């Protein structure tokens, strides 16, 4: 069993990491504003499942091997960079962008496509890989059974992901209830696109620890 003080520290650390605005939050908010909260939940689920995969990799030691391998780490990093740039420029140059407030102009994708979108976004994020392989082990007591501790922390992270990103989705969905001028929508789209591009550029600078 993990000591309560360790659990509280892990809880606080993970909430701060997840709730901090980033590419995943932008995509979730945009999906909720465009297609509603229900549709955005499949994106949230994709992000959460990707983190579960990272947990599994960390538990089996594969994440450490990936970080140790320059080829694998670089491949994951540049896939993430390319995907963020694709989303960012799509938001800026596209006719709709991440926010499509007008119901008549909604671009509705299937649930499995939005799930895959969220999964790829998080799975190709090298910072997430670094977090789970470098930070997570700090909360594990190696003098006790390791797998139950990983399972508990994985469950906590899954709940945090679902709750925090659902909050972003709620805010995005609420924005759809308010009459917003096309100029403001375009400005929001371009701002979101710029943030995604900035995140992609910053991701390109991530190095192995």
Structure explained in plain terms:
The protein is an all-alpha fold and 209 residues long. It has one domain (4-10, 22-204). Helices cover 77% and strands 0% of the residues. The protein contains nine helices and no strands. The chain has helices at residues 4-19, 23-35, 37-60, 62-68, 70-93, 111-123, 126-135, 146-175, 182-204. α1 packs parallel to α8 (146-175), α3 runs antiparallel to α8 and α5 (70-93) crosses α6. The two termini are 29 Å apart. Residues 101-106 have low confidence and may be disordered. InterPro entries: LeuE-type (IPR001123). The chain crosses the membrane at residues 40-68, 80-101, 150-171. It is found in: Cell membrane. Keywords: Cell membrane, Membrane, Transmembrane, Transmembrane helix. It comes from Nitrincola iocasae.
Question: Could you write a compact summary of the structure shown?
Answer:
The protein has 209 residues and is mostly helical. Helix content is 77%, strand content 0%. The chain has one domain.
Describe the protein's topology:
Elements: H1 4-19, H2 23-35, H3 37-60, H4 62-68, H5 70-93, H6 111-123, H7 126-135, H8 146-175, H9 182-204
Helix pairs in contact: 1-8, 2-3, 2-8, 3-6, 3-7, 3-8, 5-6, 5-9
Structural class: mainly alpha
Give the radius of gyration: 18 Å
Counting DSSP E segments of at least 2 residues, the number of strands comes to: 0
**What's the story with the biggest beta sheet?**
none
Quaternary: single chain
Please tell me the overall pLDDT: 79
Q: Into which percentage range does the β-strand content fall?
A: under 5%
Distance between the termini: 29 Å
**Secondary structure: helix percent:** over 70%
Shape: globular
Instruction: Please give the count of helices.
Output: 9
- Low-confidence spans: 101-106
H-E order: HHHHHHHHH
Query: Can you tell me the number of structural domains?
Result: 1
């Amino acid at each position: 069993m993990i000591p309560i003080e360790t659990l509280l520290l892990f809880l606080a650390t993970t909430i701060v990491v997840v709730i901090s605005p980033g590419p995943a939050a932008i995509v979730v908010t945009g999906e909720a504003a465009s297609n509603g909260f229900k549709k955005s939940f499949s994106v949230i689920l994709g992000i959460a499942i990707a983190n579960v995969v990272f947990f599994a990799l960390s538990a089996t030691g594969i994440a450490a091997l990936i970080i140790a391998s320059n080829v694998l780490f670089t491949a994951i990093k540049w896939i993430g960079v390319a995907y963020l740039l694709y989303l960012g420029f799509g938001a800026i140059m596209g006719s709709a962008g991440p926010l499509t407030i007008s119901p008549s102009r909604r671009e509705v994708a299937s649930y499995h496509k939005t799930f895959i979108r969220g999964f790829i976004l998080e799975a190709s994020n090298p910072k997430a890989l670094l977090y789970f392989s470098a930070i997570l082990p700090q909360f594990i007591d190696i003098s006790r059974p390791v797998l139950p501790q990983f399972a508990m922390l994985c469950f906590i992270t899954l709940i945090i992901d679902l709750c925090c990103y659902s909050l972003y989705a709620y805010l995005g969905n609420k924005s759809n209830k308010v009459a917003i001028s096309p100029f403001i929508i375009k400005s929001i789209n371009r701002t979101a696109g710029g943030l995604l591009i900035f995140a992609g550029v910053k991701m390109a600078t991530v190095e192995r620890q």
